[in-house]
Structure prediction request, 410 residues.
Amino acid sequence: MDVQFLGGAREVGRSALLVDDRLLLDYGAKPTTPPSWPLECDPDAVVVSHGHLDHVGAVPTLLSGADPPAVHWTPPTYELSRLLARDTLKLHGGTPQCPFTENDAARLGEQSVEHGYREPFTAAGYEITLYDAGHIPGSAHILVDDGETRLLYTADFHTDDQRLVSGTTARPEADIVVCESTYADVTHDARDSVEQRFAQTLRETTVRGGTVVVPAFAIGRTQEVLLACNAHGIDSYVDGMGVEVVEMLTRHPAYVRDADALRGARTNARTVTGRDGQRRRLADEQTVIVTTSGMLNGGPAMTYVPAIADSPLNLVAFSGYQVAGTPGRELLERGSARIDGRQLRVSARREFFDFSAHADRDGLRSFLSSYADATVLINHGDQCGEFAAELRADGYDARAPDLGETVRAE
Prediction:
């Protein structure tokens, strides 16, 4: 079995893995400015692990030919992918930053084949099984079996419970494991303590007359933050694509941990329905606003952050990982960033709250302890080489492939 890394190798973003030049696992975008895309390919079939831009954002580019591949995924991943394609077209359609058309995006529905967890199916001549990865609703580990070799592509996963989804417990037998490593050098604080600090900080900020803007990924993080706010009695507004995602997820209760809690969080949050004038007024209301985009590279956050930038009473509360090169990373580290076409210096406070949906160092090591005899290929991280070296020192057959590299695995 040959495994080629078309993206996500020694980087976070544009994940793409090609098996034997036939089967493609994920095909994402890297949310830099402008976006980066994986290496080109022409697969017989595609299997998508989950509906985040860095894993599915480039899939429509595969569908423009006369004989496009089938795209396999869970029902929530299919719906989320269509939302992301539509949003990309809205932001970048007709420009070099968007390599697909509306017709390509429309073909997602034509080529879609949906599967549940632990229901084996055949694609490009392989037996494929999806396992709950505990990352976001519908996220999956992908097991590929050619009859001789079993490849487990972990994609993004979490071993601990979140409010939105439960942690993964799946450990299918595998000869090769392609493992993400986003937080290989980090130990997450306990989620309870993160939530307590988050809730206390939000209350203190609003009581003192400040406004809180919580940039949050539309898929997964917005819902997790709304669940936390509701559980801690914090009123909030919600804006951006995350509103539509909440509505969609309520139609797939089997893929969330507590459907009733999600509906309660949705009811507690007031939806912003107006334009930028309403958003600027809300920014003066000493309230909490949960909004896309999570890395400040688009969405209503482009209005809210400049509106609260001048006062140190206000707070930008980051709730997720900020990829290097994004405005969110620049603002968090330097206090200024290019926002909506201009360089903005922000006097408002900036804090990071680790609501991560990824396994940390302990979670990764715990997961990989089930694969001590497998070949382990590390991807999707800023410290891939270092983590692979650590694993080798502990007796694993581990390495971190480079972009474009093909690994022969048996």
